[in-house]
Amino acid sequence: AVHGSRNLQTHSQTEVLDSKNLRIKLVLLGDSGVGKSCIVLRFVRGQFDPSSKVTVGASFLSQTITLKDSTSVKFEIWDTAGQERYASLAPLYYRGAAAAVVVYDITNPETFLKAQFWVKELQKHGNPDIVMALVGNKADLEYQREVTREEAQTYADSNGMFYIETSAKTSDNVNQLFEQCTEGDIAKKPKHSS
Ligand code: GDP
After folding, report:
1. Contact indicator for 36, 28 with CB cutoff of 8 Å
2. Confidence class of residue 189 from pLDDT cuts 50, 70 and 90?
3. Across residues 153-160, what is the average pLDDT?
4. Ligand 1 near 33 CB (within 6 A)
5. Most informative mutation of 38, 53, 164 for ligand 1 (most atoms within 8 A of CB)
6. Relative to the CA of 34, which ligand 1 atom is closest?
7. 34 CA → ligand 1 middle, Å
8. Taking the CB of residue 142, how many other CB atoms lie within 10 A of it?
9. For a tag site, which of 4, 10, 85, 162 has the least CB within 10 Å?
């Protein structure tokens, strides 16, 4: 069914509440220290506040945005599965996830390798329709960059992910990251009415 300009028959993991409301469970993965909590805080509260950790146990934050076509999208954001100490539980988190955001720090090549580990995990245990984003965070630290855009883009392309660089500090591309998760959802994996 097409409602306005947007085909709302998206893949099974996105809940279509009604023609103008979607709900997307989104999980964040990546090495600790890459800025996952800061990205979420920037998105949800519009702040950069590294001292205020939101990751406590299995809690999540939610944030609703309105897209250009006035569709409202409620994100339920899980920020726990990316921590190593929860690695064995991670499949429980991403099982029902419509989107997975895999974050690394552009100044730290080890975190890029860790991101690749999480991508493989998602490919093994995630739902096959999951929208995956590869996020190079701390883009404000360009002068300390150690992972090139090219290698990240190439990796993302060969793994069916979209790639974006963000800065939770300056807020660069943070909203775009989440918006693009809904675009990937709808544009990349269109499903027809069943
Ligand atoms: P997490 O463990 O992945 O949740 O990482 P945090 O969100 O706790 O961030 C770890 C550290 O990285 C914090 O001390 C932040 O100050 C810093 N940080 C996070 N995002 C950015 C960013 O975009 N730019 C810079 N320069 N520092 C960041």
Report:
1. yes
2. very low
3. 97
4. yes
5. 38
6. 3
7. 6
8. 11
9. 85
Which atom of ligand 1 is nearest the CA belonging to 167?
23
Report CA(82)–ligand 1 centroid distance (Å): 14
Structure tokens at 182: 């809904």
> 136 with 108: CB under 8 angstroms?
no
Q: Is the CB of 32 under 6 A from ligand 1?
A: yes
pLDDT tops 50 at residue 183: yes
Its ipTM equals: 0.99
User: What's the pTM?
Assistant: 0.85
CB 9 within 8 A of CB 192: yes
SS3 of the chain: CEECCEECCCCCCCEEEECCEEEEEEEEECCCCCCHHHHHHHHHHCCCCCCCCCCCCCCEEEEEEECCCCCEEEEEEECCCCCHHHHHHHHHHHCCCCEEEEEEECCCHHHHHHHHHHHHHHHHHCCCCCEEEEEEECHHHHHHCCCCHHHHHHHHHHCCCEEEECCCCCCCCHHHHHHHHHHHHHHHCCCCCC
* Residue with CA at minimum distance from ligand 1 atom 17: 35
**Residues 134/63, Cβ–Cβ less than 8 Å:** no
